[in-house]
Specification:
By secondary structure, the chain is mainly alpha-helical. It has 7 helices and no strands. 7% of the residues are buried.
C-alpha cells in the first residue's frame, strides 16, 4: 500500500493538484487501489517531466538523495518511459518541437523564394513540352523543301516521310512518364 495523493504531494513538495494533474496526464501511475508508491512515482515524475520545469536539484540526483531501503524489501521494477502503451509527455513534446522546427524551415525557404509551387511547376513543364512538340511537328514543313532540293528527290514524298518519322518519335517520347517528385 502506497501513499495517498496528499501524502505524496507533501513527500514531493508540491500541491495535491499538481499530483492529480500528473496522474491525469499519465506522468505518474497510481496503484490499483489508488495510492501512490513514492519510489516508482518519483522515477516516473523525473522521466516524464520536461527538463525546463524541473528544479535545479532534481536535474542531478545524488545517490545520497535516494531513500534508504531495507535489504529485505523487494525491489520493484521501474516503469518504462512509455505509459499505458502511449508516448510520454516528454516524447510528445519533443515530436511537437521537431514538427514546429520543420514547419518553420519550410516557411523560411518559401519566404526566401527557394521553394516553388508544385502545381505551377507541373503546368510550366507541360507548357514547355507542348511548345517543344509543336516545334517538332512544324519542322518537316520548314525543312523538307530545302532537303529535297539538296537530295534531288520529290519534296512531297520527303515531307510525308519526315512528318511520319517525327510523329513516331514524338509518340515514343509521349509514352515516357517523367516523375515530378
Amino acid at each position: 500500500m502506497g501513499l495517498s495523493i496528499r501524502a505524496y504531494a507533501r513527500h514531493r513538495g508540491v500541491s495535491h493538484v499538481a499530483v492529480k494533474k500528473a496522474i491525469d496526464t499519465g506522468r505518474i501511475t497510481p496503484e490499483a487501489d489508488g495510492t501512490i508508491e513514492p519510489n516508482r512515482a518519483d522515477l516516473e515524475w523525473a522521466q516524464n517531466t520536461v527538463a525546463a520545469r524541473k528544479p535545479v536539484a532534481a536535474k542531478t540526483p545524488s545517490p545520497a538523495a535516494e531513500p534508504i531501503r531495507p535489504a529485505s524489501a523487494p525491489v520493484e521494477p521501474v516503469a518504462p518511459t512509455l505509459s499505458a502503451g502511449g508516448t510520454s509527455l516528454l516524447q510528445a513534446r519533443t515530436v511537437n518541437e521537431v514538427v514546429k522546427a520543420q514547419t518553420n524551415k519550410v516557411r523560411l525557404a518559401q519566404l526566401k523564394g527557394d521553394l516553388v509551387d508544385r502545381s505551377q511547376a507541373i503546368a510550366h513543364v507541360f507548357r514547355l513540352a507542348r511548345t517543344e512538340r509543336d516545334a517538332w511537328l512544324n519542322w518537316p514543313a520548314r525543312i523538307s523543301a530545302e532537303m529535297a532540293a539538296k537530295l534531288e528527290v520529290d519534296a512531297h514524298e520527303l515531307h510525308v516521310a519526315l512528318e511520319s518519322a517525327v510523329r513516331d518519335h514524338l509518340i515514343e517520347l509521349g509514352d515516357m512518364r517523367p516523375r515530378v517528385d
